[in-house]
């Protein structure tokens, strides 16, 4: 029996004995009815004192008091009580994420997808595993817990939520049952505590060693980079691996919606977008933050993703002295990046501007384009894994002044098995950046 069968069997067994989805997976000795009663009392007291359920210190103090009282009562009746097990179960019910906590805490979990009450899936490493679907009650409670932890609300007037969970390395996307035929749709992305480094991407086959060395040299030479690809193609992972190698003395402004990148550089700030609030707070967009970033004296600006008119501000920032900036973008292939950017820049235009001028802004801003996609690999008959693979790396070389079309040189290409170097030369702009920042220009050796 392979590992996946064991996991699926374990899920099914736990599903069969679970009477309440608020039971902690690690507290099998805790009494379910006792935990539910104490958890309800903790919630009631938190509401009385006006405390938020996100306040773990207050919840723990109340829970300890209640569990200690229960222990004393049972001691008089000579009935033992596992105090820590009950306490952990109560806190899990009050502060946790319900039934999905069991799967979230499993090693290797990267995403949990709940398709209403119809089905649910766990993405663990490179594999996708089906898990028991949630009941209406479990799903409603799970959504309630996720919203409480993120400080968001959902309903027919606000049917979409995209946020991060407070104090955690998780991002949620929730679709309201008013527009989802199967009930609430939930996507929970779990980011590893220790992000993958460039060396890890090489070990996993996402990058070749020569490609990793080349990208590191370009990062240190402060080339402007766009990382493109589809959903879940690994764009954020690659960006994390690169931004972690930014020298410590450089000031970096991270702009995210919501925040999900790890940050170890001691001289950085993190700005998040914000929706308009009921109290009158205005919407803060990625474009607003990019404009403001240029007043904060950054050495680099890193935007987690551009998907609207903010592309115009991003190109202007990259093309006006903020070298070494990075962003991600959804696109079909490396050359499609420029068409996508052009269409997004039109969305951000405040006055008419010739298409040729927009192409020139792109040309003056971008040095490298990295494209990656999901690659389906068959491990054995009927068993597959999905691997993130960099498939193309292009360097911007020139622009056709008569048409405005941007010309690129293809440096690396995935041939179905390996990311191979095609040889070629760096653009004059990249050679000048290497000279200016004291980086040895990498030699591209054809595979």
Question: Which features characterize this protein?
Answer:
447 residues; alpha/beta; Beta-Lactamase; Rossmann fold; 3 domains; nine-stranded mixed beta sheet; six-stranded antiparallel beta sheet; 36% helix; elongated; disordered N terminus
Characterization of this structure:
By secondary structure, this protein is α/β, with parallel strands linked by helices. Helix content is 36%, strand content 23%. It has 14 helices and 15 strands. The strands form two sheets. A nine-stranded mixed sheet has the order 9-8-10-11-7-12-13-14-15, with helices on both faces. The protein has a six-stranded antiparallel sheet with strand order 3-2-1-6-5-4. The two termini are 40 Å apart. The model is unreliable at 1-30 and 51-57 (pLDDT under 50).
Question: How are the SSEs placed, and which strands pair?
Answer:
Blueprint: H1 3-17, H2 32-48, H3 56-76, H4 83-95, H5 101-104, E1 109-115, E2 119-124, E3 127-131, H6 136-150, E4 160-164, E5 170-175, E6 185-190, H7 198-203, H8 209-220, E7 225-229, H9 235-243, E8 252-256, E9 268-272, H10 286-293, E10 300-303, H11 310-318, E11 326-330, H12 336-347, H13 355-365, E12 368-380, E13 383-399, E14 406-414, E15 419-421, H14 428-436
Parallel strand pairs: 7-11, 7-12, 8-9, 8-10, 10-11
Antiparallel strand pairs: 1-2, 1-6, 2-3, 4-5, 5-6, 12-13, 13-14, 14-15
Helix pairs in contact: 2-3, 2-4, 3-4, 10-11, 11-12, 11-13, 12-13
